[in-house]
Amino acid sequence: MTDRFKFRGRRIDNDALVYGSLLRNEFGWNIVTFESVLVDPDTNSHDLEMILVGIVDGSQEQCTGLKDKNGVLIYEGDIVVARDQYPWFSDDEHNYASIIEWEYGAWYYSMEPISKRVRGSACGGQLCSGGNEDSQLFEVIGNIHENPELLEQR
After folding, report:
1. Number of domains the chain is built from
2. Are residues 123 and 80 in the same domain?
3. Do the beta carbons of residue 21 and residue 32 sit within 8 Å?
4. Rounded distance, CA 74 to CA 65, Å?
5. I want to staple 127 with a disulfide (CB 3.0 to 4.6 A). Which of 20, 85, 107, 120 is the partner?
6. Beta-carbon neighbour count of residue 67 at 10 Å?
7. Dihedral sign of CA atoms 99, 100, 106, 108 in order
8. What is the DSSP track for 74-117?
9. Final residue in a domain of this structure, among 12, 32, 54
10. Helix, strand, coil % over all residues of the chain, rounded to 5
11. 89, 100, 96, 104: which is closest to 62 by C-alpha?
12. Whole-angstrom Cα distance, residue 35 to residue 54?
């Protein structure tokens, strides 16, 4: 579960998502990443350079430490579908999705019709981090920052 301590956030300079460790300093929230830098071309030796990337306040999201059915890490704010578990369709379109959220000290999802983005769906529950891996039912199809159109009514 070492992935549980990874974060992402929207860059201040270009709004793209950046992944790494989370740090807050006097300038605000930052994501810390490391880049390999060539130190000596003759010996091909490299060093790691720490890079601080400023992120938009409130855009920081934590990794759940769990992976979807394709092995993709699931982050807070990800939009997921569970085609095999919740196969409700209309007009041949998958019309149920969920946003991964941190609530009550755990990661939660609620499968709800995309056209009714309200809490309290009858289908949903806690993403498990024990033996019963509900996360294996899901497929990450995007996130609320880069793919808000996935949550629009179809």
Report:
1. 2
2. yes
3. yes
4. 7
5. 107
6. 17
7. positive
8. EETTEEEE-TTTS--EETTEE-EEEE-EEETTEEEEEEEETT--
9. 54
10. 10, 50, 40
11. 100
12. 16
Taking the C-alpha atoms of residue 23 and residue 12, their distance in angstroms, rounded to an integer, is: 15
| Domain assignment of residue 75, given as a range | 62-151
- 48 burial (CB, 10 Å; 0-12 / 13-18 / 19+) is exposed
Cα–Cα distance, 49 to 37 (Å, whole number): 7
CATH number, residue 66: 2.30.30.290
3 state DSSP class of 151: helix
Q: Are strands 89-90 and 106-113 parallel, antiparallel or unpaired?
A: unpaired
- Measure Cα distances from 152 to 98, 118, 121 in Å: 12, 13, 17
CB atoms within 10 A of CB 134: 17
47 with 69, same domain?
Answer: no
Clarify whether residues 39 and 109 are in a common domain. no
pLDDT tens digit sequence for 25-64: 999 999 999 888 888 889 989 898 999 999 999 899 999 8
Q: What is the pLDDT of residues 58-90, one digit of tens each?
A: 899 999 888 888 999 999 999 888 766 555 545
Sequence letter at residue 5 = F
